[in-house]
């Protein structure tokens, strides 16, 4: 029952509410009616913020602004070099049925971004280097060339592939099920097109999700997004032929602003032939409400649903999240929340509850 | 609050539309039909058991199909070929599983959060219990075979050594560490003032370097006297090996029966 009803429901919701971009914090783009490229160097969002993004973080995102004299950080070291970074320090407590509760402090993410505009507004080299957890690891490294009218770009190298809402939470079902997220960059080329109200990207990559290429198949990933000031709607698709079995993913995603609330929605269907018994159809869906309580405060409520195999009944999983985000001053965000997982009773991990507090510093 | 209520109402309406989590009827812990490949059973240090209890239900939430992270597919058809003797793509100088050397295996480093690159696995989930990682370590240390664990002999007590601060029990083969507890292994002092046996409070563990050795460490040094050591081989809570074969406590050559040994500490008669 649930799969078809969910797909129908999500499609209606996504189409009627309209959907969003592709970024680390897509709800901000929906709230403001911006495209990803308004605040980020990367046209597909996420990573290094541009000058506007840094000014926005200081003057709009934060509840209070600490005066820093005449200087405001814009990320620009000089005319050619732009720098940025993120650090996320967390405390997490996890309750799993039948098991002892665990809690820990962790640096879940620390990274530095570098963009060198070798030819201003035309040719740049971009690096995204993660320093924690673990030692330094490169996640993105590419060269990007813009046409003179800023309508088309091409980038080549290692990059995150364009598919659906690029949520901050890479453990969301809509990020893990398609398998295209900010933990699985791939190597290849991407062509993009930007107009006033449209964004489109098409990428050809190894399809090895960051691992070494082991076969001749190449992954094709693309999306098309319509962006209006109050809503947006996108379609994404990916096909990855592989010796282990072909994998195709389709996504419908969008966003809508209703007063102080920014809604995000996404529904994905994955057809994966790489399972030992053959093919499985997997479905994931997300609906998220972000309420800008007042300046610097955001309440995020999220409902998620995941069907690991449409041919198997009663294996569905849900996840409910309530997260409060407070930005007391510029470049600092405090986050706290809970995530309630609900799955089959045989699997304790699918029924865990997670509480977390996070300090997020960025520049 | 009106806005919050509206938000929750919408989310709840979606939940009604989508339905809730499955009730798991007819499924194993991996969410697969029981008739397809059976349940996971007790975790033992062999690939089939680790596959059924760890790789399939936990790791294949991401590591499956053409988009498996780092190209590492951990479904039952691919896990052995992708792990054993294969260089890590994150740390090419290390093998994902180096047979006989668990500490140098990248898989263990990732599970224990000691890898030089990237986050601890499973990503976004709580770390595996140390007892589970110990089983995977044992599988690797014993050669990381693709087959099931061969049952070579019956689990039995080989020798018992006693000191005031430690009682060590050498077994004939690796023991299931999850079953070593105050119920299955007890030490009682017999010559108490009341004449009633008194259980000695102690910490119990399987040696981290020898999984055939059970070590009992009393909270207080044992006083001189007479003691009785019991390893339980009867009832629902019995000591067993990784194949769930119960200890042959009474020495009759077949599993079952309590092992009872009188001990003297400090020159007691």
What is this structure's SSE topology?
The complex is a heterodimer of chains A (363) and B (269).
Chain A: H1 2-17, H2 26-32, H3 51-61, E1 81-95, E2 102-119, E3 123-132, E4 137-146, E5 152-159, H4 173-176, E6 186-194, E7 198-205, E8 219-227, E9 231-240, E10 247-258, E11 261-275, E12 278-294, E13 297-307, E14 317-326, E15 332-342, E16 353-362
Chain B: H1 2-18, H2 34-37, H3 47-55, H4 79-83, H5 106-112, H6 130-141, E1 157-162, E2 167-171, E3 185-189, E4 198-199, E5 202-206, E6 213-218, E7 225-231, E8 259-265
Antiparallel strand pairs in B: 1-2, 2-6, 3-4, 3-7, 5-6, 7-8
Protein model, in words:
The complex is a heterodimer of chains A (363) and B (269). With 363 residues, chain A is mostly beta strands. Chain A has one domain: Porin (Beta Barrel), CATH 2.40.160. In chain A, 10% of the residues lie in helices and 50% in strands. Chain A is built from four helices and 16 strands. Chain A has helices spanning 2-17, 26-32, 51-61, 173-176, and strands at 81-95, 102-119, 123-132, 137-146, 152-159, 186-194, 198-205, 219-227, 231-240, 247-258, 261-275, 278-294, 297-307, 317-326, 332-342, 353-362. Chain A has a 16-stranded antiparallel beta barrel with strand order 1-2-3-4-5-6-7-8-9-10-11-12-13-14-15-16. In chain A, strand 2 (102-119) and strand 3 (123-132) form a beta hairpin. The longest helix of chain A has 16 residues, at 2-17. Mean pLDDT of chain A is 89; it is low at 6-23. Chain B is an alpha+beta fold. Chain B has two domains: 25-141, no CATH class; 157-265, Immunoglobulin-like (Sandwich). Helix content of chain B is 20%, strand content 16%. Chain B has helices at residues 2-18, 34-37, 47-55, 79-83, 106-112, 130-141; strands at residues 157-162, 167-171, 185-189, 198-199, 202-206, 213-218, 225-231, 259-265. In chain B, a hairpin with a 4-residue loop joins strand 1 and strand 2 (167-171). The model of chain B has no long low-confidence stretch (mean pLDDT 83). Classes of the chains: A mainly beta (363), B alpha+beta (269).
